[in-house]
Amino acid sequence: MSDLLFHYFPELEQDKRGEAFKEMKELYEFWNAQINVISRKDMDSFYERHVLHSLAIAKKIQFKPGTRILDIGTGGGFPGVPLATYFPECEFTLVDSIGKKVKVVKEVSDILGLKNVQAFHSRVEEIPGKFDFIVSRAVAPMIELADWTIQKIAPGHGNDLANGFLFLKGGDLKAELQSFQEKYKGYRIDTYVLSDWYEEEFFSTKQLLHGYQLKR
């Protein structure tokens, strides 16, 4: 229910962004019936498992207007579509290697009127340009995500967090983070537990990882 969203983000309820979030589930139900991008079980918990999960990033950082964000392995558009809805003055590039998923992203974005979203059926390595933040929801181990995208992070620090990675992951990440730190010694990873922001059991093992280059 969208009430769950408004419980955690009350600023959306009297905002035109809130109307887009209300419409979002119906759109995904329609497209999911044609192109399966979300499991039926997760569709029943759409706002909890997809929208709130994606917006955990907004609990940690309020992107400033003009911030450029790349969502890799976006699937049906997560976390990119909820974030683009929440941050209409930021620029989002959503990428996935599966064409039918990108079709859903484009259709949903068009209907929601998200002028700040570009979606590409491509490998992330082929996307040109640099971005302030790279976001993703658990599509691969941290070290692989970094290998694909670390050269795409723009220098600078225009937000309250340093430019870098913002990855949503779950479970025991000790070995994964150790492998990353061994290879990328000039980078730091700060970890935030989503249960600090959300009460639902689903978030008890979920984390947000902020990876960024240490100042030289």
Features:
Rossmann fold; seven-stranded mixed sheet; 216 residues; globular; 8 helices
What does this structure look like?
By secondary structure, the chain is an alpha/beta fold. It has one domain: Vaccinia Virus protein VP39 (Rossmann fold). 39% of the residues lie in helices and 20% in strands. The protein contains 8 helices and 7 strands. It has helices spanning 2-8, 16-34, 40-44, 46-60, 80-86, 99-112, 142-149, 174-183, and strands spanning 68-72, 91-96, 117-121, 133-137, 164-170, 187-193, 206-213. Strands 3-2-1-4-5-7-6 form a 7-stranded mixed β-sheet, sandwiched between helices. Strand 1 (68-72), helix 5 (80-86) and strand 2 form a beta-alpha-beta unit. The longest helix is centred in the first third of the chain and has 19 residues, at 16-34. The radius of gyration is 16 Å and the shape is globular. The mean pLDDT is 94.
Short summary:
The protein is α/β, with parallel strands linked by helices and 216 residues long. The protein has helices spanning 2-8, 16-34, 40-44, 46-60, 80-86, 99-112, 142-149, 174-183; strands at 68-72, 91-96, 117-121, 133-137, 164-170, 187-193, 206-213. The chain has one domain (2-213): 3-Layer(aba) Sandwich (Rossmann fold).
